[in-house]
Amino acid sequence: EVQLEESGGGVVEAGGSLRLSCAASGSTFGDYTIGWWRQAPGKEREGVSCLSYPDGNTWYSDSVKGRFTISSDNAKNMLYLQMNSLKPEDTAVYYCKNSEIGWGQGTQVTVSS
User: CB–CB of 54/44 below 8 Å?
Assistant: First the structure.
């Protein structure tokens, strides 16, 4: 069974940066989408950014566009989210999702003002 595991969360001051990583325990083949979602306390889970294969198209939510960058290392089965200029409203549990595998367990990101 292929699983996803996120890492890289933590506490950072507003304006700071974090890099999230998502490791897949195996490979995914064919057409699929992989991306990042987040869920803040009392709010619904929302999409942050995604990357589709094999076309490589990316998508960002308006709230993170220009600040976050999604990338991958296919040889290592890794997905990344570089988060810059973090804001307190970015505070949430961040989840990795692969359309063929499912969800990771999440990593907490807390941005202090």
Answer: no
Beta-bridge partner residues of 46: 38
Dihedral Cα 6, 11, 16, 20, nearest 10 deg: 0
For residue 69, list its beta bridge partners: 82
Q: Which amino acid is at 96?
A: C
The alpha carbon dihedral of 89, 48, 79, 82 has a sign of negative
Q: Give the integer Cα–Cα distance in Å for 58 and 66.
A: 13
Tens digits of residue pLDDT in 78-108: 999 999 999 999 999 999 999 988 999 999 9
How does pLDDT run across 14-70, given as a tens digit for each residue? Answer: 999 999 999 988 777 678 899 999 999 999 999 999 999 889 999 999 999 999 999
**Among 31, 29, 55, 41, CA closest to 88:** 41
